[in-house]
Amino acid sequence: MNSYDFIIKDVPNMPTAFIAEYGSGYPVIGLLGEYDALPGLSQKVCAEKNPVEEGGNGHGCEHNLIGTGLVGTAVALQETMRREKLAGTIRYYGCPAEEQLIGKPMMAKEGVFDDLDIALSWHPEKLNQVIQYSSLAVKSVKFRFKGISAHAAMAPQLGRSALDAVEIMNVGANYLREHVVDTARIHYVITNGGKVPNAVPDDAEVWYMIRDQKQSMVEEITERLYKIAEGAALITETSVSHKILSSCYEMIINPEVSELIYKNMEEVGAPEFDDEDREFARQFTDQMSEEARKEVMDSYFAPKEVRDNLPLHDKIYKPDDWGKVMPGTFDHGDVSNIVPFGYMFIAGLPVGMPGHTWQVTACAGADMGIKAMMCAAKIMAGTVYDLLQDNTLVERAKASFEKEMNGRKYVSGLGD
After folding, report:
1. Contact residues for 35 (Cβ-Cβ < 8 A; gap 6+)
2. Which of 138, 150, 315, 356 fits a 20 to 30 Å CA distance from 107?
3. Measuring CA to CA, which residue among 252, 406, 250, 415 is closest to residue 329?
């Protein structure tokens, strides 16, 4: 135990993940913390590019605020549970590698979310809202072909080109595009095409990502790609193997949990920014065109009144986004297919700022980011407190989840 009386547990096969648990009994509420950074985005808290360490990592998605904010939530709840003698269990999940879309799917494969009753998380963003829309499912797979090397000029007949197999596979995949649903996306890059042109490559690799609105369709398309790869190997007399790098389900938002988060968001209010926050944010928004800001905010289905709330969104927006699917992927998707899940955005970035940039890193260390984190911690704490106080809220969320799943059971897309 640590000084806060949380029991710390390791996650099998994931040395950088952990679980901190307090309390006992029903309900079991999970808080999904994140803490990974992005390469090359080191940045000081200023509006001109100025890295702390040249080429170093930086929190270009503000995961430092997600992880720390939910630690604050967990500690506040622990103190309240002890004082009020509340039954129930809270778990903080330290979740790495969200940027590689692999952290929570690997944890889910280990079964660490199976006995949760509710899961919650948040993300610093450009607006204050409870998420209602879904996200894209994705599978990331590398295909490696092995052939026979030979001199490409003197004895090409002795070679069996692994690169030929990659290129034939890509041709097959491009023909496959005509015969998949309109919502599907197939992208690839050749990661190894050989070393020199005058030697037949005996080793080549191509990396594919397959996306769709439903994991079931992603799996169907991936199975067809496996057959295309096998066909390419047969044509070129090479062999092929594949390795799944990541696999994420589409995100399912639970309406009951969503409504409860919104209630607490209204009670807590939006982050309270001051003139210094707004001036710092304006230095970034002034660098962006109105059209660029619009394109960024459109990906969140944000209406004009949110886009025009410059430079920092300081209101609470209640959307009606049920049934929409954003053009991106969250690795929360796997968790949301195991238990009822709720998710919210809290404004900690200037309106219209693109993600995964040094500008985001600058804001992640600024006062605006800290204020977003504190606001989120309070909203999450209030939401969990309500669930602990009134178990009927948990039961309604679970009944809604079972109806949504309609008998489907989660099966990890990472394979054996």
Report:
1. 63, 64, 66, 67, 94, 95, 96
2. 356
3. 250
Output the pLDDT for position 152: 95
356 CB neighbour count, 10 Å cutoff:
13
Backbone angles phi, psi at 311, to 5 degrees: -85, -15
How far is Cα 165 from Cα 159, in angstroms, rounded to an integer?
Answer: 12
Q: What is the DSSP letter of 153?
A: T
Give the amino acid at 244. Answer: I
Query: CB–CB of 117/401 below 8 Å?
Result: no
Rounded Cα–Cα distance for residues 218 and 209 (Å): 10
* Helix or strand run (H / E) with residue 83: helix 63-84
pLDDT for 29 equals 98
Alpha carbons 172 and 166: distance in angstroms, whole number: 10
31 Cβ neighbours under 8 A, 6+ residues apart: 70, 73, 74, 90, 91, 92, 93, 119, 120, 121, 380, 384
Residue with the two structure tokens 């066909």 = 231
Sign of CA pseudo-dihedral 141, 131, 297, 72: negative
SS3 content of the chain, % helix, strand, coil (to 5): 40, 25, 40
Quick one: pLDDT at residue 1? 41
The length of the chain is 416
Task: State residue 416's pLDDT score.
Answer: 76
DSSP per-residue codes, 202-257: SEEEEEEEEEESSHHHHHHHHHHHHHHHHHHHHHHT-EEEEEEEEEEPPP---HHH
H or E element that contains 310: none
Instruction: Give the integer Cα–Cα distance in Å for 46 and 51.
Output: 10
In one-letter notation, the amino acid at residue 293 is R
User: Over the chain (416 residues), what is each successive 10-residue block's mean pLDDT?
Assistant: 78 95 97 94 96 95 95 96 96 94 95 98 97 97 98 96 98 97 96 96 98 97 98 98 97 98 98 97 95 94 94 96 92 97 98 95 96 98 98 98 96 90
Cis ω on the peptide bond leading into residue 51 (within 30° of 0)? no
CA-atom Rg of the chain in angstroms: 24
Sheet holding 137-146, edge to edge: 185-192, 203-212, 137-146, 239-248
Q: Indicate the DSSP class of residue 339.
A: S
